[in-house]
Amino acid sequence: MEIKNTILGLIRTLDTFVQLPSEQIYNLIVMAQNHFEIFSVFQKYMEEEEIVRDSIRSICKELEQASREIITILQGVHKPKGLSQISALCEKGREKFSNVKNLYESLKGKVPTDEFYRYHEHWRFVTQRLVFSAAFIVYLESKKLIEREEAAEFLGINDYLLHNFILNNFYSFSFTVSADPADAFHVELDDFLIGLLLLAEELTRLSLNCATYGEYHRPVEISEFVSEMNVGFRLLNLKNDLLRKKFDGLKYNLKKIEEVVYDLSIRGLIPVAKS
């Protein structure tokens, strides 16, 4: 009350300059103070959020560098003598993933609880490339398609959240959820699927190089693998987004691989029945 009277007293001295009642001027001052306090809270929140984003960006830059190093190593399979060094190249690639695991652990600590999707865009694309690298290693070693759990292990994200999805509009599959419900840091489904589509692009290139270097049986194996992948993706009801656009490119990759197999078969370089 005393503060109000003091303010009103000061305002009355300005009556000759301000053509407003003293009480109304006081209310405007109080309102301005309230607005200042409200927006000060907003400003503090924005500053704190920017600090979090900066720390996340810093880790993501290191992840991108690690991803480039892994991809560079795996590109060795496309060299003339690369096919004979697959085991060594895959081992080197796996060793590089140890650093990736540490970085994802640091990233997990920076992301506030239950705000995974708020910051997900920062590491979305690098995760897709790392999933691709992991899938490429698994294929080169065993000629099998990587599973999402295995991809999560490569990245050190053992606690992953797998959403329900519908196949062919009839069958609904529910996969195991993280053991810790509070831990929502996971390999996003779209990121995993795009990583697989990137694998198909890389295998298209590999099939061409294998034919060039005389490894005629590999294009046939790649053709069967990508064909089965194509069938699997066709079961998914994909929307018109980045994943859908990537999937549209899969049929063109498969066509290129089949053309390689066809050229090898008409030249008698592989058995017709096998092709």
TrEMBL record:
The keyword Nucleus applies. It holds the Pfam family Translin. GO terms for molecular function: endonuclease activity; hydrolase activity; metal ion binding; RNA binding; sequence-specific DNA binding; single-stranded DNA binding. Keywords: Cytoplasm, DNA-binding, Endonuclease, Hydrolase, Magnesium, Metal-binding, Nuclease, Nucleus, RNA-binding. CDD domains: Translin. Mg(2+) binds at residue 202. InterPro entries: Translin, Translin_C, Translin_fam, Translin_N, Translin_sf. The keyword Zinc-finger does not apply. GO terms for biological process: RNA metabolic process. It comes from the Eukaryota. It is found in: Cytoplasm; Nucleus. Its main location: cytoplasm. GO terms for cellular component: cytoplasm; nucleus. Belongs to the translin family. Exhibits both single-stranded and double-stranded endoribonuclease activity. May act as an activator of RNA-induced silencing complex (RISC) by facilitating endonucleolytic cleavage of the siRNA passenger strand. Ring-shaped heterooctamer of six TSN and two TSNAX subunits, DNA/RNA binding occurs inside the ring. This is Translin. It comes from Caerostris extrusa. The lineage of its organism: Eukaryota, Metazoa, Ecdysozoa, Arthropoda, Chelicerata.
